[in-house]
Amino acid sequence: MHFKPTGFSRRLAITLALAGMTSAAAPVWAQQPQAASDGVQVGKMSSLRNLVPEEQLEAAATQQYVAIKQQAQQQNILLPENHPQVKRLRAIANKIIPQVTRWNPRASDWKWEINVIAAKDVNAFCMPGGKIAFFTGLLDGLQLTDDEVAIVMGHEIAHALREHGRERVAKSTLTNAGAKLAGIGLSALLGIDSNLTTAATGLGANLTMLKFSRDDETEADVVGLDIAARAGYDPRAGVALWQKMAKVSQNASPQWLSSHPAGQNRITEMKKHLPAVMPVYARTKGVALQALPPYRSNVKGIDPVS
Ligand SMILES: [Zn+2]
């Protein structure tokens, strides 16, 4: 997700919100006609990325993922297969993964993996080739609903589907003539969040962090909404998710705040794309667009999203 609340440990004080009554006014997205080609539209992927062989990138990512899992296991922080959070995430992934080939046909061959690491990091990632990890600091700290998990998962998977990591590696090789597309030089650029390098757990301590551009982040947000909607998860949960993030940031260190100045922009951008994805969501749910109730998160102080 490229949250960077390194070392952030405070949890949201969370209580169940009382269910209020729905607002009478029809939301903007419900007033718009359904587009002929539904869902979100994004531009072409950068052709620069073709400089990097995808097989090589995915193989390196797999290697890194295995190493991260091994380290987590040694530290006893890799949640077991039968852990409720692992089962829950894999169930959500099972609904999301069938939707991904629309965005990258190659992804139908990926060997998907979903794991949960018990660490306080407010983070998650999906490496090239479909290797996903969530941290309990995000899942439990923000008390994510299934819809909100799907938004995060959609976002992370979108980075992989749109090959943002591959593009970054390609750009890096252009600007760094000596760069080698192998070994640590490559794995250092796979899109692993800095949290992995700096977390108290020390996981992947020798990896360098890849920072996606703001454009990549926006694209991942937008494509993630589309993927979540097709899988039957409410895209409006993205708005609630970033409201939760804002609440966390109120209690966080100045360092955290400085790395997340764009929360409100992300909410604005997501709201802009709701008219494109809400009809998709309604169709997946088998209900009329206008019949969808507002999205309600599970914590006090997060407004229902119409
Ligand atoms: Zn991201």
From TrEMBL:
One of its GO terms (cellular component) is membrane. Residues 108-272 form the Peptidase M48 domain. Keywords: Hydrolase, Metal-binding, Metalloprotease, Protease, Signal, Zinc. InterPro entries: Mito/Outer_Membr_Metalloprot (IPR051156), Peptidase_M48 (IPR001915). It holds the Pfam family Peptidase_M48. Its cofactor is Zn(2+). This is Peptidase M48-like protein.
